[in-house]
Amino acid sequence: MKLNRAAWLLLIFVPILLIAGGTASYFAYQKMQAQHQRNVAELEQFGYEMVPSDIHSETVGTLGASQLPSTFSEKKLTPTERVIRGLMQDKENLLAEQQTMLDEIDALKQQIEELKDYKRLNQHFAPESFADELARTKSVLKSTLARMPESEPFSNVRLDVMAAAGTQEYRRFVMANRLILDRPEKARIIEDYLPTYAFCVARAVDLAANSRDEERILMAWFSDPDQTRLPTLLAADIDKLLPACKTPLRTALQATLPTP
Predict the structure, then answer these.
(1) In this structure, what are the phi and psi dihedrals at residue 154, rounded to the nearest 5 degrees?
(2) In whole angstroms, what is the distance from residue 140 CA to residue 191 CA?
(3) Domain termination site, one of 125, 145, 162
(4) How many domains, in total, are found in the chain?
(5) 107 and 179 co-located in one domain
(6) Three-state DSSP class for 60?
(7) Same domain, yes or no: 111 and 199
(8) Beta bridge partners of 66
(9) Each residue's pLDDT tens digit, 121-135
């Protein structure tokens, strides 16, 4: 039986198509396998990057020191080795705590230095204390009195008595009225009010003191009345004489205050 033209064509092209399809499938399979291998390799590399491949690799301690890798597994440690490893960990923890404490100490030292600087600055610019103010008042008043012609008959001890007495009245006036005086106000009181009182005290001392010793006792008493006790007769005499000096001064000083 003779084959027609169509049959011959099928006999020729069908095997060719099958061969071509198989070849294409083979190369496609090979390409898929290669891609699969690449995917597996990339996945493995990702795993290596995320999780250490060796748990006994070299590490860095909390203080930055390199630590040698462990040569033994945790499960294979003997009791002694476990103790040693625990002590090593305790040492590392103690070193970390020590460093923390050292850092805190350094910070505290810095704060102390800053406070010292603040104290020095504050002392430099702060107003003088009241004790310093009184000492300065006494010194300035004595110098003021010494320059006056009326003071020529008086000894240095008498000038000390006069300056001490004037300073005590200045102290009483400032404390009684809770005043903070500036320099011009202080100078005005020292120059305009206290000298008159001081000369009045000098005359009272002439009448009350019967010797140089009693004059020195009065100087100590005017300087620190709370810590100095006067003899009975001397105290009685000075108590009679001083009111005549104090009353005019206190009235004049009170008049310098602003009226409410």
Answers:
(1) -90, 145
(2) 9
(3) 125
(4) 2
(5) no
(6) strand
(7) no
(8) 60
(9) 666 555 668 888 899
